[in-house]
Amino acid sequence: MLQQDSNDDTEDVSLFDAEEETSNRPKKSKIRHPVASFFHLFFRVSAIVVYLLCELFSSSFIACMVTIILLLSCDFWAVKNVTGRLMVGLRWWNHIDEDGKSHWVFESRKASAQESKTVSEAESRIFWLGLIACPVLWVIFAFSALFSFRVKWLAVVIMGVVLQGANLYGYIRCKVGSRKNLTNMATSYLGKQFLKQNAGEDQTS
């Protein structure tokens, strides 16, 4: 079922009816997609390693920059189109309708009684760890380049923040749903904390 968010032209939809067949597979902690898991980390970790060590092995800034951008681009495509779908059953993308209007679509497997059986726990940990940790490192690199006046590297670092940050944002939207759902979750959490605090104060008094 398609659910369109009227505020920001986004849709939260179910991912590939054909993939519902995987719901019959038992949930296992082992890695069921080793190739996807490898490339989920390979490109983004390689980009970070090249950024940190390239000046030690090469004096050519252009060669280092091109290598890093190629790795970041490969990572963006692989994570957006392949590893998210295989490892955690999520995917986000954009399409243009017949009226020329842009729509962002955030997909996830249909909720069912057997949904928890479709994803490997080990793959899920690998996916989210790589997805979150690497953008954080690029943000640190950005501040480091800024404060150390390494201006020529700033554009490369910003590219890393943007590309990997876009995938992080997209998959968070897939995971938690629309922006409205995210706001409701935050409001509900704050409300629960407020009630707990008031209950604690009543007991002490």
UniProtKB/TrEMBL annotation:
Residues 1-27 are annotated as: Disordered. GO terms for cellular component: Golgi membrane. It is a multi-pass membrane protein. The chain crosses the membrane at residues 35-53, 59-79, 126-147, 153-172. Keywords: Membrane, Transmembrane, Transmembrane helix. The keyword Transmembrane helix applies. Residues 1-21 have a biased composition (Acidic residues). It is found in: Membrane. GO terms for biological process: protein secretion; vesicle-mediated transport. Belongs to the TVP23 family. This is Golgi apparatus membrane protein TVP23 homolog. It comes from Vulpes vulpes. The gene is TVP23C.
